[in-house]
Amino acid sequence: MNRTSALILAERAVPRYTSYPTAPHFVDTVNGEVVRHWMAALNPDASLSVYLHIPYCREMCAYCGCATKATKRDTPVEGYVTTLIQEIRQAGARTLAKSVRAIHWGGGTPSLVGPERFARIMAALGDAFDLSNVAEHAVELDPRVVTEEFIAAMAAHGVNRASLGVQDLNDHVQLAMGRVQPFAMVADCVAHLRAHGIAAINFDLMYGLPQQRVADVEKSAKLSLSLKPSRIASFGYAHVPWMRPHQKMIDAASLPGAAERLAQAETAKRVFIAAGYWPIGLDHFALPDDPLAIAASKRTMRRNFQGYVTDDADALIGFGATSIGRLPGGYVQNYPDVGHWRRAVEKGELPVARGLAFSADDHARGAVIERLMCDFSIDFGALAFAYFGYESYFDDAINALDALAAQGVLTRKDRVVTMAPNGRSFVRLAAACFDAYLAQDKARHSMAV
Length: 449
Ligand code: SF4
What we know:
Blueprint: H1 3-10, H2 32-40, E1 47-54, E2 56-57, E3 69-70, H3 75-94, E4 99-107, H4 114-128, E5 136-141, H5 148-156, E6 161-167, H6 171-177, H7 183-195, E7 200-207, H8 214-225, E8 231-236, H9 258-274, E9 278-280, E10 284-286, H10 291-297, E11 302-304, E12 307-309, E13 315-319, E14 324-327, E15 330-334, H11 338-346, E16 352-357, H12 360-375, E17 377-379, H13 380-388, H14 395-400, H15 402-406, E18 410-413, E19 416-419, H16 427-432
Parallel strand pairs: 1-4, 1-13, 2-3, 4-5, 5-6, 6-7, 7-8
Antiparallel strand pairs: 8-10, 9-10, 11-12, 14-15, 15-16, 17-19, 18-19
Helix pairs in contact: 3-4, 3-11, 4-5, 8-9, 12-13
The structure holds iron/sulfur cluster.
């Protein structure tokens, strides 16, 4: 593939496919009543994954793409935790499935709950569910607001992985992105985590940030490596001010263009691979002994709203405003507005705003897109046969891949398609060929790279 083709492809806007169908297609006919039946129908032996959303931060970072709100006060957090505990208790009473395999705290800034509320939430979770089989317990951390007391509480409650928002380690980029976080602060946080026995550490880094250049990405990557995280995610900043109005704080003219973004992504990748990390999926890197690298090599890695994961639980239950879950029947999203979410929980209702009931077609296309995004190759005939009993189900979409094949992005042999090594960055474009909702999609997406 030549550079010009790569740039044209990089500028195409496509979903990130952390779910299929994607969240803009969720509908409000999937409500609390529908989900109550889905919860009750869960097999008692089903394994569960739990996501806890804390939608508060001390201040808003200009680049933030998360569902969160700034607060300097503690009162909203206390009120939120009270409702969260109520929601957990109600969920425990709604299903016979109890065995939790994975817990993930995201936000926002989970550490804002502090050690005492963290313990209360864990106690409620332990009362409502069986936590004796939890294999992975992960918390997203902002190094600027995490305390050693909170890290000690995490360790005491079995947290074994921490995910640090690092993004970039250059002063001028940190100023432009509205998040000042010196390297020493990140290093201190890592040292405290390790001192408390939390050895699995993820770093989230970003390219495509305001004022960021290739040399800045390289410096951030190398400094990050000096702290030896076990996993690194290297995300492209998505400038979507029509969805996240606070991103208007970022001057669009200060953002790198498609050519620069592509060079930044490639630079980060080169630095991580040279240091012995394995490239995983679209944008992750992991040390060879990390469970994600092992899952990727066995083709058992999964993709969900948290990105690439090892978690293969039968159901994902989301707690808190905005959180998204996945039950065998379909996707479920809670009310994004905290007041709305709280009123529903206080009335004893499921706080479900919308969701999507899977059709057989959704299941099969979702599997295709997930395997493409995780494995970069797929036998469409075998997958179609497994779902529908014949191999030609996806033939129209496979034919649509020929345009990408002509540009060297992938190769195709009958119904077996493999992304070319230098075409992997464009896997979202291949996935989009299988997206039956894309034509009716009114949402604007971010660039392909
Ligand atoms: S980037 Fe993280 S810390 Fe910053 S506002 Fe968003 S959720 Fe909060």
